[in-house]
């Protein structure tokens, strides 16, 4: 079937639907023609045979008058053909004709039977053709629906492409803007680093200048005292126990009351040092030259203790509640989400009712323990980085914290802002502890140094260089103990420049805890063990292990109970483990509120309750 074109429009394009219909009609012609290719020739042959039979039947039924003539004619013809054969009789011809008639009838029956079969097959094929035509109509309808759906999807694709193009353009714009913002951020970070470096340098210069001024002031005071002593050395003075009766040499110096007060304080300190009071003037009379030697020795002793020459003597030991027997906690009494992020440090004040916590949110929160509950007291602000350690001074009036901002900061309880910043480290400060006085402190840092600080003057009085960065420090009478990342515990004499002893561990040391009698040291390390060191003989007395206990971080803190009977630590799975120090037996393991690793624990000085903090911002009070 040829395609129809409009003659008025030359080479007019044929619509796609017309081409599709033509193709469908051609396909239908081919399928229907294939069904009749065998039937039509058979039907034509059947018609031809039927015509032949009709002709034979007409020939076999001649007229009665013609029978004889035909017979004679045939006989004559036969006679003419074959002279030797006899002429057949009419009866023979009749019989032969009847046989042929019967044969033709059989053939006609067979032909009729074939016609019936062919008609039945034709009906079947026509029904199949109708069924296929109905299926074709359904398929054509579905094709039309699919074409409509395709057109709709094509429209959606076009819309999506347009939207993608617009979004790509917006993305390119945002990427360019983000690049500019990143460049600006890098510039601001560089400026911030420069400002921070300049601030640190300024702080260091200020500290150096302050140290220099203090040293000059000390030298001037020492020179003045030496001059006064040299002038007074020419006279002989008797020392009396009655403070109201002064020798003439001292009475003449009433215009220097500081020196008189210093002499009295030194004399009282000498009595405490050597436990040998001076005798009365009636029993003993000393020359002032001998007194000068004694005073110089006392001045040297006082300087070694960290006091200023012209200052009043300071009380070294504060009244701390005495714990007769610590109580093992058994249950969680109070649970709070105390900070905005991970909590790294916790510490009790000397009165056991004041608690301090510090975390990665750069805040120190003070809590009151009242009736088995934690009540918010105060928030100490101004820390320059994450809090890694907190400590109360012996009087409980000051809080010292180590921060990731390369400094330690000092607060006064009751004041929200930082009182003093101890800058001088070049890396994160990991530990900050008061010494036995409220005016001296020790810090440890990842810059591989341990520093001693004079808090009255806010300057570093001593820097100790170590081979490994420090994770924790504790202080005794005249000793500083530091735990390090190189699996060693080092002992430093605060009166000498060198390390006095090194004790190796089997893992990185994460914390140290000194007993109140200063005879035992508790260490926690990353080999998942706690060790008790007897400082009298400098050896490891106990090693604590437990199934399930694992040290969760490099700053996990373990503590002694106030009576040194138990050791307490938190594990990576939120459990608390308590061992008996004397027997080495695991006394208890507490589970419940903590769902993250416990970073630090604290046992109050009265021994009645325990507080633990974790990486999930929780503070738990245990009784």
Automatic annotation (TrEMBL):
Domain Autophagy-related protein: 20-211
Keywords carried by this UniProt record: Coiled coil, Cytoplasm, Protein transport, Repeat, Transport, WD repeat
Organism domain of life: Eukaryota
One term under GO cellular component: cytosol
Main location: cytoplasm
Coiled-coil blocks: 115-205
Region: Disordered, residue numbers: 62-90
Compartments reported by the entry: Cytoplasm, Cytosol
Protein's GO biological process: autophagosome assembly; protein transport
Entries under InterPro entries matching the protein: ATG16, Autophagy-rel_prot_16_dom, WD40/YVTN_repeat-like_dom_sf, WD40_PAC1, WD40_repeat_CS, WD40_repeat_dom_sf, WD40_rpt
PANTHER family reported in the protein's UniProt record: AUTOPHAGY PROTEIN 16-LIKE, PROTEIN ATG16L2
Function of the protein: May play a role in regulating epithelial homeostasis in an ATG16L1-dependent manner.
Annotated family: Belongs to the WD repeat ATG16 family.
Protein name as it appears in the record: Protein Atg16l2
Gene, per the UniProt record: ATG16L2
């Amino acid at each position: 079937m040829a395609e129809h074109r409009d003659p008025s429009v030359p080479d007019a394009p044929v619509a796609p639907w017309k081409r599709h219909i033509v193709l469908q009609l051609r396909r239908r012609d081919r399928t229907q023609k294939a069904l009749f290719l065998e039937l039509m020739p058979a039907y034509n042959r059947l018609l031809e045979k039927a015509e032949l039979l009709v002709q034979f039947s007409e020939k076999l039924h001649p007229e009665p008058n013609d029978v004889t003539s035909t017979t004679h004619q045939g006989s004559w013809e036969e006679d003419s053909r074959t002279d030797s054969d006899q002429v057949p009789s009419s009866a023979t011809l009749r019989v032969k004709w009847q046989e042929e008639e019967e044969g033709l009838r059989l053939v006609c029956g067979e032909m009729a039977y074939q016609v019936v079969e062919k008609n039945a097959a034709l009906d079947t094929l026509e029904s199949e053709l109708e069924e296929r035509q109905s299926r074709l109509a359904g398929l054509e309808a579905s094709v039309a629906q699919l074409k409509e759906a395709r057109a709709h999807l094509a429209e959606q694709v076009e819309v999506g492409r347009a939207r993608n193009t617009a979004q790509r353009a917006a993305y390119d714009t945002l990427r360019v803007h983000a690049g500019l913002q990143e460049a600006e951020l890098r510039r601001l970070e560089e400026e911030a680093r420069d400002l921070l470096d300049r601030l640190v340098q300024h702080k260091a210069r200020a500290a150096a200048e302050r140290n220099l001024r203090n040293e000059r002031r000390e030298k001037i005071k020492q020179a003045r005292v030496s001059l006064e002593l040299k002038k007074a050395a020419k006279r002989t003075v008797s020392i009396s126990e009655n403070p109201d009766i002064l020798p003439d040499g001292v009475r003449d110096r009433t215009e220097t009351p500081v020196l008189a007060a210093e002499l009295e304080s030194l004399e009282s300190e000498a009595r405490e040092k050597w436990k040998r009071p001076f005798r009365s003037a009636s029993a003993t009379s000393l020359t002032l030259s001998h007194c000068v030697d004694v005073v110089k020795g006392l001045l040297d002793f006082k300087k070694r203790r960290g006091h200023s020459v012209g200052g009043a003597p300071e009380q070294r030991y504060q009244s701390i509640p005495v714990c007769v027997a610590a109580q093992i906690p058994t249950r969680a009494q109070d649970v709070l989400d105390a900070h905005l992020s991970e909590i790294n440090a916790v510490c009790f004040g000397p009165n056991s009712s004041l608690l301090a916590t510090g975390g990665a949110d750069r805040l120190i929160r003070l809590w009151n323990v009242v009736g088995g509950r934690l009540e918010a007291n105060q928030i100490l602000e101004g820390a320059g980085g994450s809090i890694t350690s907190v400590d109360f001074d012996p009087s409980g009036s000051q809080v010292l914290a180590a921060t990731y901002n390369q400094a330690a900061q000092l607060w006064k309880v009751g004041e929200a802002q930082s009182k003093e910043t101890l800058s001088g480290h070049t890396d994160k400060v990991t530990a900050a502890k008061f010494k036995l006085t409220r005016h001296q402190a020790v810090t440890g840092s990842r810059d591989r140094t341990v520093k001693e600080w004079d808090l009255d003057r806010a300057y570093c009085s001593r820097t100790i260089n170590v081979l490994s960065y420090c994770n924790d420090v504790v202080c005794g009478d005249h000793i500083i103990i530091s735990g390090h990342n190189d699996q060693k515990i080092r002992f430093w004499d605060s009166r000498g420049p060198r390390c006095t002893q090194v004790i190796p561990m089997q893992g990185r040391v994460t914390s140290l805890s000194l007993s109140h009698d200063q005879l035992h040291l508790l260490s926690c390390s990353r080999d998942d063990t706690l060790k008790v060191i007897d400082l009298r003989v400098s050896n490891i007395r106990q090693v604590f292990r437990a199934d399930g206990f694992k040290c969760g971080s490099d700053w996990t803190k373990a503590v002694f109970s106030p009576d040194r009977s138990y050791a307490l630590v938190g594990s990576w799975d939120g459990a608390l483990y308590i061992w008996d120090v004397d027997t080495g037996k695991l006394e208890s393991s507490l589970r419940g509120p903590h769902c993250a690793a416990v970073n630090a624990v604290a046992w109050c000085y009265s021994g009645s309750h325990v507080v633990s903090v974790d990486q999930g911002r929780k503070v738990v009070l245990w009784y």
